[in-house]
Amino acid sequence: MTLGYDPKAGRFVGTFIASMMTHLWQYTGSLDTSSKVLTLDTMGPSMLSADQLVAYQDIIEFISDDHRILSSQARGTDGEWMHFMRAHYRRVG
Question: Fewer CB in a 10 Å sphere around the end CB: N or C, the chain?
Fold first, then answer.
């Protein structure tokens, strides 16, 4: 994942690609008022049908300088967010 801030747009922007997929994920996002939660919005292939694009969010929580949490969710056909992944990243040493 690459992330940066676009001062003209006033938003964070980024991309993600992985060798096991053909989709280039393009993100736009913003920090919450505490500056501790970065929510990135994107569109990507549905987990139910690769021919359909659905809304996704990757949410990065800055717990401390040594701990971050990445959560991912997808919008279901009912309009509700379905959480499907959570990872803790910790600096060692």
Answer: C
Which domain, by its residues, includes 48? 2-90
Tens of pLDDT, residues 41-60:
999 999 988 789 999 999 99
Joined together, the tokens standing for residue 46 give 């549905």
**DSSP 8-state symbol, 20:** T
Q: How many domains does the chain have?
A: 1
Residue 16 Cα to chain centre, angstroms: 9
- What's this model's pTM, rounded to 2 decimal places? 0.91
Task: Look up residue 87 and give its two tokens.
Answer: 């990872």
Provide the 3-class DSSP secondary structure of residue 28. Answer: strand
Q: Give the C-alpha separation, 79 to 11, whole Å.
A: 24
